[in-house]
Design brief:
heterodimer, A: alpha/beta, Rossmann fold, seven-stranded parallel β-sheet, about 50% helix, about 15% strand, globular, B: alpha+beta, Alpha-Beta Plaits, eight-stranded antiparallel β-sheet, five-stranded antiparallel β-sheet
């Protein structure tokens, strides 16, 4: 049995990951903003076989609240083996273009707060010299595109931050795992037209659990995104600025 | 709000829809402007247009997929309405329980099972799905949440069971499961040469077998008319120690072939082969998945019918005069040379269906599918409609995309009573079609 903390547990991808852990009989701490949905998720996971499920309501953008949450998680679970950080909002790009405040707020939620939380969790786990921290970034963080660079640059910070943290914590036996999903069919993207490139939260969840089990440092999910993003990253800026991607 | 193309399982009907979704059972009914109406949408397994609302919007339940409570002592399960029967089975079979009624696919949602008041191969014993629903919550477009049970808001329960999603959206439901020992089925397969033999076999199977279903070779004429293969089964009284396991490997039809692979030549070959290869009285232990859901192993099998899709035709004819009516239907199909591969014959028992628009009633039910080959098929369908109507039978809305409004209204005499319960914001392509000529 593992003791797992999930921040952003009401997201569909995190929910699908939780189900896999629940079926393994793990003990879970679910953190999110909506108390009613957290409770609904918790009872679902109990039915599916989780050893114990606790919930904690928190807005991750409120940095001082991280400490309370981590203390409470440690007490209720009796320690933490793995962490999944899965929260984030899909920024409204056009609205952000009109507002510096909104852009900053989006970056605060999707990037700054994640960096703060990773720092605290990294410190906690490296004391115990064991553990796994997985964080959901995005293929959008690999290159800034006109259509969603606010969201993308936030995720870019997460990717780079996690990469550095991974190096630093390597010696202390803590694995940091960067997950870069492509297009996933979730409520966040409910209004998008779906094509061949889209995949299900369940498939992403299986990939996340596999990466966490094997301590894979960074994965694209599904894997076909790896060569695609490699190619996109290689396009020179001079050409890239003319493209509509 | 971007719109999306949604097509139903028969792939014959599709159209642009606005898509709304409920993320949990606590979510309010969405504000659907600018759309005129919305239709609760589960897993889209209905064949015709009853799961579509072309030109307007759907309210998807696919994120309403949480269990709420399960008591392994009593078998009472509470879950959100977007949970699939496949998910339920995965959870409860290892603990000795089974869904009380199941259709031929496990990829239907609980909400859809109630809204179509589905039936299974055990109708004689168990009746329809809604008979096992203890209660559910109905969310109306005015924001009202109503607890519906056979004894509470009973008229709303009766309108919503079989109500095709038109009375509002079901957010969660409580279902009484049935006990089983394990995942295995004790299955007997018997060949029959004609309808009389089928009737005799049915009568004989009724007391000893919970599940009965027959496949009919509907290309055969004359003295072979109505020949087929009957399968009857019980849940096996043994545990799965070293027994058949479900095939894990699933195969998907990766793309739509340019023409239907189901055509007269392939049908004649397959039907004859299937009938001939069946030895008499074969009895064996099978996993429940292969007995109930043989087609679930081929994901997207509906693509085999090509880009033009397929029609389904399922009718029920009352017991009195039922055999003659089925004979007439089969004769008409054999004459037309438009036989279907998945021709399935079942008998419905006397148990009352709770819904105002529930399809099952005592008698015989025949389900057929036809690749869509354009005009000739309409003539055949009108002929079949005539036979069904003359004996007071009716067609199944979940399979239908074409029945005339008159046939719907004569088959479902409570339609007027039902229409008073339709939510002012809910509609469907099916409903508009059968109500167009009122």
């Amino acid at each position: 049995m593992k003791k797992v903390l999930i921040v952003g547990a009401t997201s569909t991808i995190a929910g699908a990951v939780c189900r896999i852990f629940a079926e393994r009989g793990d003990a879970l701490m679910l953190v999110g903003r909506r108390a009613d949905v957290l409770d609904a998720t918790a009872s679902d996971l109990r039915v599916r076989g989780a050893r114990a499920v606790h919930v904690h309501t928190m807005d991750a953008g409120d940095l001082p609240s991280h400490e309370t949450m981590l203390t409470r998680t440690g007490e209720l679970l009796g320690g933490i083996d793995s962490v999944l950080i899965a929260y984030g909002t899909l920024s409204d790009q056009t609205a952000c273009e009109q507002s510096g405040e909104l852009t900053a707020a989006e970056l605060h939620n999707n990037a700054v707060s994640v960096a703060a939380l990773l720092t605290r969790i990294g410190a906690l786990l490296s004391q115990r010299r064991a553990g796994t921290i997985a964080v959901i970034s995005s293929v959008a963080g690999d290159r800034g595109r006109a259509s969603n660079y606010v969201y993308g640059s936030g995720k870019a910070l997460v990717t780079v931050f996690a990469s550095g943290l991974r190096q630093r914590l390597y010696k202390s036996g803590v694995s940091v795992i960067t997950i870069k999903p492509g297009f996933v069919d979730t409520p966040m993207t409910a209004t998008f037209r779906k094509g061949m490139m889209w995949t299900t939260p369940q498939r992403i969840a299986r990939g996340i659990v596999r990466a966490m089990d094997r301590s894979t440092p960074a994965v694209y999910l599904p894997r076909f995104w790896c060569p695609i993003m490699l190619a996109i990253k290689m396009i020179p800026e001079n050409l890239f600025r003319r493209l509509r991607l | 709000m971007a719109s999306q193309t949604i097509s139903s399982w028969g792939r014959l009907f599709s159209g642009e829809h606005g898509v709304f979704c409920l993320k949990s059972r606590y979510d309010p009914f969405p504000n659907i402007t600018p759309f005129s109406s919305v239709l609760p949408y589960g897993n889209g397994r209905s064949y015709g247009d009853s799961c579509l609302n072309v030109g307007a919007a759907v309210l998807s339940s696919r994120f309403l997929d949480r269990f709420i409570d399960f008591d392994p002592q009593t078998g009472l399960l509470r879950c959100e309405s977007g949970v699939l029967l496949a998910d339920i089975l995965r959870l409860v079979v290892p603990r000795g329980w089974f869904v009380p009624v199941t259709p031929g696919t496990a990829y239907v949602t609980v909400g859809g099972a109630i809204a179509n008041d589905i039936h299974g191969k055990n109708h004689r014993r168990a009746g329809t799905f809604s008979r096992h629903v203890r209660r559910f919550e109905l969310l109306r477009s005015n924001g009202e949440r109503m607890m519906c049970a056979p004894e509470e808001n009973a008229s709303w329960f009766a309108a919503t069971a079989g109500g095709l999603g038109l009375t509002g959206v079901i957010t969660w439901a409580e279902i009484q499961l049935r006990r089983v020992i394990g995942p295995l089925m004790d299955v007997e397969t018997i060949r029959f040469a004609n309808l009389n033999e089928f009737m005799a076999l049915c009568a004989e199977s009724n007391c000893d077998f919970e599940y009965t279903v027959a496949w009919i070779d509907c290309l055969s004429k004359g003295r072979h008319l109505g020949r087929g293969v009957l399968r009857r089964a019980n849940h096996a009284e043994l545990l799965a120690a070293k027994s058949p396991r479900p095939r894990r490997q699933r195969f998907s039809v990766p793309f739509t072939p340019p023409f239907s692979l189901v055509n007269l030549t392939s049908l004649r070959l397959m039907n004859t082969a299937y009938y001939r290869l069946q030895r008499r009285n074969q009895r064996r232990i099978e996993h429940f998945e292969s007995f109930f859901y043989p087609l679930d192993h081929v994901l997207c099998w509906n693509r085999l019918y090509g880009p033009r899709g397929m029609h389904q035709y399922q009718c029920v004819v009352p017991s009195a005069g039922g055999r003659e009516a089925i004979e007439a239907l089969l004769e008409a199909i054999a004459r037309s040379g438009k036989g279907s591969f998945l021709a399935v014959l079942k008998s419905f028992g006397e148990l009352n269906s709770p819904g105002m628009l529930s399809f099952p009633r005592a008698g015989l039910t025949l389900a057929l599918d036809f690749p869509n080959r354009g005009t000739g098929i309409d003539q055949l369908f009108s002929q079949l409609d005539g036979i069904v109507q003359s004996v007071g039978g009716r067609l199944y809305p979940a399979k239908d995309g074409r029945m005339p409004g008159k046939l719907f209204r004569s088959g479902y005499p409570r339609w007027q009573e039902f229409s008073r319960f339709v939510d002012p914001r809910c509609s469907s392509s099916f409903w508009r079609r059968v109500m167009a000529d009122v």
